[in-house]
Specification:
- The relative contact order is 0.14.
- Strand 7 and strand 8 form a beta hairpin.
- The protein contains ten helices and 15 strands.
- The protein is flat and about 70 Å long.
- The chain has a five-stranded mixed sheet with strand order 3-2-1-9-10. Strands 13-12-11-14-15 form a five-stranded mixed sheet. Strands 4-6-5 form a three-stranded antiparallel sheet.
- The chain is about 40% helix and about 25% strand.
- Among the domains are: about 45 residues, no CATH class; about 150 residues, 2-Layer Sandwich (Nucleotidyltransferase, domain 5), CATH 3.30.420.
- It is of the alpha/beta class.
- The protein binds adenosine-5'-triphosphate and magnesium ion.
């Protein structure tokens, strides 16, 4: 038994293997604080909403936060910002703890192996991911897991490039960040992140058009496509402009980060994109076009998008956890053969 966990700025997701099926559990990484009242009490007891009460305040976390925010006319808040724990949010740690506990559940046995995603350090922001990583690690440890960090971009390679010998460029376009990893035969040769993603697109498009960010986000998530037939001056027009700008910015940074020595000569590199921000129709075609126009120090064989952009990081973390678990089992099997033991364990 092992588990994969994607700790994202907007979504937290776990992945577990049950028979032939991979089971995912997802919650939105957000919460809302409302005043304790009889009405709140009634609504909360009638439904199984994730919440904690602290004195006269109630915190509602995960998917339900948005509904309650609308009903009580409050803003949702987020434990994470730009890929890591938010330093502006006092309640970040207790809230992310509650969401994570709900998503991963109880470990199947003590010290169950759990791989959780962490972003690479951003090259365009002066922040370190270490504090974030260590905090999540200790929360998971307290829950009875044996946690191991895995780079978000590398998780994409594990989930999407298994049939390409774990070789290629994986890019996860998330909410707070974009994570990029180039790997050869499952060995990362370049990994970095940039502190821009879906949130950045929303903020810029909102600023440009004078609309609230939430409105822009819902237009983007509902039926926006990157077909460039959209209205000049409208929200969709602004979204297209900032999508385009994000892709150019990502490619510019790939060029400046990749050391030509990193790239095996004559190799065509497959590219796979994933993450919620890669969802609109036309996304991989646009990225592919922009890559073709750029002066990259390597050639690209094809650009594809993950079948399920929201799930691939959790899935990749699970693949890594399961393969680590098998390796450990093989090693202990070998050791017991060496010492003449049977390797069979008695139930305790
Ligand atoms: N259908 C859609 N079209 C466009 N964007 C979408 C769609 N669905 C979700 N998104 C955007 O995808 C982003 C969330 O993606 P994802 O869950 O991959 O991010 P995350 O892993 O939580 O964040 P990060 O990896 O940056 O920490 C948000 O910006 C959201 O608005
Ligand atoms: Mg992510």
């Amino acid at each position: 038994m092992a588990q994969g966990l994607d700790v994202g700025t907007m979504n937290i997701l776990s992945a577990r293997q049950e028979g032939d099926e991979t089971v995912f559990v997802q919650q939105r990484n957000s919460f809302v604080e409302i005043d304790y009242s009889d009405m709140a009490e009634q609504m909360l007891t009638r439904s199984d909403v994730l919440h904690i009460r602290k004195d006269d305040q109630v915190y509602i976390v995960g998917d339900d936060a948005l509904n309650f925010a609308n009903i009580f006319n409050e803003e949702t808040r987020r434990p994470m910002q730009a890929g890591i724990l938010s330093s502006d949010e006092q309640s970040a740690i207790p809230m992310i703890k509650l969401i994570t506990e709900q998503v991963v559940g109880e470990p199947h046995h003590h010290d169950e192996l759990l791989f959780f995603s962490v972003p690479a350090d951003p090259i365009d922001a002066d922040v370190s991911t270490l504090y974030h990583q260590k905090t999540i690690e200790s929360l998971l440890d307290d829950m009875g897991y044996s946690p191991e960090p895995i780079n978000e971009g590398m998780a994409v390679i594990y989930s999407e490039l298994a049939n390409r010998e774990f070789t290629g460029l994986g890019v996860s376009f998330g909410a707070g960040m974009t994570n990029i990893c180039l790997a050869y035969y499952a060995v990362p040769v370049m990994k970095f992140s940039i502190a821009r993603g879906g949130d950045w697109i929303d903020e810029k498009a909102a600023q440009a058009t004078g609309n609230p960010v939430d409105k822009v986000t819902s237009v983007k998530e509902e039926d926006f496509a990157l077909d460039f037939e959209t209205d000049v001056g409208g929200i969709e027009g602004a979204l297209s402009i900032y999508y385009d700008n994000l892709l150019d910015y990502v490619i510019e940074n790939i060029i400046s980060e990749v050391d030509e020595e990193d790239v095996e000569e004559g190799l065509d590199v497959p590219v796979v994109v994933t993450g919620g921000t890669s969802s609109p129709d036309g996304f991989e075609d646009l990225f592919s076009e922009r890559l073709a126009d750029a002066n990259l120090p390597f050639s690209i064989s094809d650009v594809s998008r993950a079948d399920n952009p929201m799930y691939s990081v959790a899935q990749g973390a699970l693949v890594a956890a399961r393969s680590e678990e098998e390796r450990t089992a093989d090693r202990s099997g070998e050791q017991s053969r060496d010492t003449g033991e049977t390797g069979a364990e008695t139930d305790d």
